[in-house]
Amino acid sequence: MNAAVRAVVRMGIYVEAKVYFIYEGYQGMVDGGDNIVEVSWESVSSILQVGGTVIGSARCKEFRTREGRLKAAFNLIQRGITNLCVIGGDGSLTGANLFREEWSGLLEELAQSGKIEEEAVKKYAYLNIVGMVGSIDNDFCGTDMTIGTDSALHRIIEVVDAIMTTAQSHQRTFVLEVMGRHCGYLALVSALACGADWVFIPEYPPEEGWEDQMCVKLSENRARKKRLNIIIVAEGAIDSHNKSITSEEVKDLVVQQLGFDTRVTILGHVQRGGTPSAFDRILASRMGVEAVLALLEATADTPACVVSLSGNQAVRLPLMECVQMTNFNVAVLNVGAPAAGMNAAVRSAVRVGITEGHTMFAVTDGFEGFANGQIKEISWGDVGGWTGQGGSLLGTKRTLPAKYLEKIADQMRTNNINALMVIGGFEAYLGLLELSAAREKYDEFCVPMVMVPATVSNNVPGSDFSIGADTALNTITDAYESCLQLAEARARFEEFCIPICVLPATISNNVPGTDLSIGADTALNAIVETCDRIKQSASGTKRRVFIIETMGGYCGYLANMGGLAAGADAAYIFEEKFDIRELQANVEHLTEKMKTSIQRGLVLRNENSNENYTTDFIYQLYSEEGKGVFDCRKNVLGHMQQGGAPSPFDRNFGTKISAKAIQWISKKLRETYRRGAGKVFANTEDSVCLLGMRRRNLLFQPVVELKDQADFVHRIPKEQWWLKLRPLMKILAKYKTSYDVSDSGQLEHVARHSPKEADTGAI
Fold first, then answer.
1. Pseudo-torsion of CA 686, 692, 694, 697, nearest 10°?
2. Could you tell me which residue ranges the Phosphofructokinase domain spans (predicted)?
């Protein structure tokens, strides 16, 4: 959160706005006084590496009342504040939106009571709200990552890595309980990242008999000479009967059934503390700047928005759309004669719907039951064991909806049904036609509706069958140039006419066709952690500047993004040419800052940024020019950036894109398999692809098409997205520079993507 606070303050001052801290959240806004303080550039110095939030956070019952919000409005008006940047979860953001909606009424009430002038009501007529989501659970709809999630994953993985050695030595089983009362993101991703044997999350209760299945899995792993077993339990994990699954119960089960030496570790609030990761610092800095830009562009008609991350792009989304999208109500019903497979279809619909985050409702006795109000919420455990049962456990009738339209519309309105899934035969098809025809008269029917054909007669138009499926294999290569060479050799070697996919994996992040590469986040964290320690080493000494050399070849990604995450004063890279005049200007700028505000300076240099202005040269220049004001130290990080355990982000990113690549390869194998020849033959450009993150999408791109985007001499892409963040680092280091807002986020609506979009290359 501190990185976000820092970015908002410094970007706000950069655009010549007054910036205020409101200490202790909404409580501070209600209490006013010294809780609302104007801040300066130096107010946020040295907070980038500090966990938590320097401005505090507190729950406030008073703000939930209109009287409390009236006090808050008065305190803001006293200081002329009409723009609020709120960092918090969905509760905090929903409260901010309510405050905005009531704003004009609150001002009128203050004017009527004589606390403010009528002129103030006109002058401060509307309140702008921009939110940023701070939550370690990553449980907010509309953003891929919330501020704090990656750091929490770091804490979990650090613990797992630390216990691995002793656990392997003693052949132990560890049960690790992590946070996640309602959201299992931390548990699931940390399980992927550390190679856990079993994981329990609230969204996916295990099937009946999971106890035996888990013990069999642990026994098999131990039989294969695996000396360590890890089981991760989210604190909100439940079984199929909605009964909680605790870490102690799991431990007792393993001890009783297998006799394994088992220990429990409950991380608790350790996950909320510690130094923020590089990813979180960069994410929060980008979001903070975007939040200020959104406030500057806001008008009276602009809805409250939240700054989110989609893929690798900062976007603005309507705040309440995100809050409401977190949960949809979906109703399922059977129509027509009973058919084998109906119950399996209902079970699948309910469980996948719950996994997708929806609240699922079951309607009994078809449209007739719907009209009579026979609708209730259905849980994961309610459909346990339905797969093998015949008939329709929900009950079904042939009744069509035409004569019940009014009552059905009323039930949909009462239960806030957002989507409808109808499972049945020809009657179901006719029923949907009738509902569709009634849309002009009843808005309640203007929701997504889908029909799943289920009938022994197989007589539904538009479907050859009622139920169906398929399978495949894999092939992966690991380097862009190797992949390109194989593609170009196909004319001579038919063996290369197979589906080939390259996954970008390099700390330099210099592969064309992708914004991110596996390994780059780990290297960034190594740089940031080292920079933090180096700066800390100078605590209590006289003013000091550190010159740090990073790896990356000719690609300045590590230097630039490491500088942004570590709060550097300058970062020299190959992609942005510099000369002695710029070096001198940087030294003078840093000298002035050293005299007035900061004690420690940080300068990063990419190893190949300039053949003449070497790290030694820059060190000697700063040392000479800074005499009497500061002294210098030099550090070359070297291969330390390539070592260490992979970060949670890299483990998760690698796992996900590998799975996606396998899906793509399977699809290509089915498309290119020649039955007559009994082999695969793929010779088109789109069968040799690089899977990369481009802005907000994961895309499969033919490697041949990427040739024009690559500088093969310097082994870097010709265009690199992160160069647009260069001015941001300079602004936050108190330089006067321009910031390109042409690529800043625009307010857009929340879109929910289907997993099936993976087949088209976008997620």
1. 80
2. 1-294, 480-665
CB 396 within 8 A of CB 342: yes
Q: How far apart are CA 144 and CA 307, in angstroms?
A: 11
SS3 664: helix
The backbone torsions φ and ψ at residue 167, rounded to the nearest 5 degrees and listed phi first, read: -65, -40
Q: Residue 465, exposed/middle/buried by CB under 10 A (0-12, 13-18, 19+)?
A: exposed
Q: Which residues pair with 335 in a beta bridge?
A: 397, 424
Three-state SS at 467: coil
Give the Å distances, CA to CA, from 399 to 118, 368, 760: 62, 6, 39
Cα distances (angstroms) measured from residue 594 to each of 513, 543, 565, 601: 41, 7, 20, 8
At residue 578 the predicted structure's pLDDT band, cuts being 50, 70 and 90, is very high
Going 15 to 562 to 509 to 184, the CA torsion angle's sign is negative
Q: To the nearest 5 percent, what fractions of the chain are helix, strand and coil?
A: 45, 15, 40
Asked if residues 186 and 178 have their Cβ atoms less than 8 Å apart, the reply is yes
Say if CB 523 and CB 551 are below 8 A apart.
Answer: yes
Please write down the HEC assignment for all residues of 21-88. Answer: EECCHHHHHHHCHHHEEECCHHHHCCCCCCCCCCCCCCCCCHHHCHHHHHHHHHHHHHCCCCEEEEEE
The tokens for 400 are 């069509």
Q: How far apart are CA 438 and CA 680, in angstroms?
A: 50
User: Which stretches of 551-630 are assigned E, i.e. beta strand?
Assistant: 570-572, 600-606
CA 718, CA 698: separation in Å to the nearest integer? 20
Name the residue with tokens 């260069």: 726
- 156-160, 370-374, 759-763: lowest mean pLDDT where? 759-763
Token pair recorded at residue 345: 């279809």
The whole-model pTM stands at 0.69
3-class secondary structure, 660: helix
The span from the CA of 551 to the CA of 566, in Å, is 16
pLDDT tops 90 at residue 666: no
Residues 490/685, Cβ–Cβ less than 8 Å: no
> Catalytic amino acids?
137
Tokens linked to 476: 């992966």
Q: Please tell me the distance from the alpha carbon of residue 270 to that of residue 186, in angstroms, as a whole number.
A: 13
Mapped to the 3 state alphabet, what secondary structure does 92-152 carry?
Answer: HHHHHHHHHHHHHHHHHHHHHCCCCCHHHHHHCCCCEEEEEEECCCCCCCCCCCCECHHHH
Give the distance, in angstroms, between the CA of residue 117 and the centroid of all CA atoms in the same chain: 45
Instruction: Report in angstroms the alpha-carbon separations of 97 from 79, 306, 574, 755.
Output: 20, 11, 45, 31
- The string over 663-679, giving b where at least 16 C-beta atoms fall within 10 Å of a residue's C-beta and e elsewhere, is ebbbbbbeebeeeeeee
* Amino acid (1-letter code) at residue 187: A
Q: Which class for 642: exposed (0-12), middle (13-18), buried (19 or more C-beta within 10 A)?
A: middle
Rounded to whole angstroms, the Cα distance separating 454 from 342 reads 6
Among 127-136, 440-449, 737-746, whose mean pLDDT is lowest? 440-449
Mean pLDDT of 487-493: 61
Residue 131 CB: number of other CB atoms within 10 A? 31
User: How far, in Å, CA of 509 to CA of 727, rounded?
Assistant: 20
**Strand-pair partners of 20:** 38
> pLDDT tens for residues 382-408?
887 776 666 678 888 878 788 888 888
Distance of CA 662 to the CA centre of its chain: 22
From residue 114, how far is each of 37, 66, 103 by CA, in Å?
25, 18, 17
Quote the tokens at residue 110.
């203050």
- Distance separating alpha carbons of residues 650 and 530, to the nearest angstrom: 19
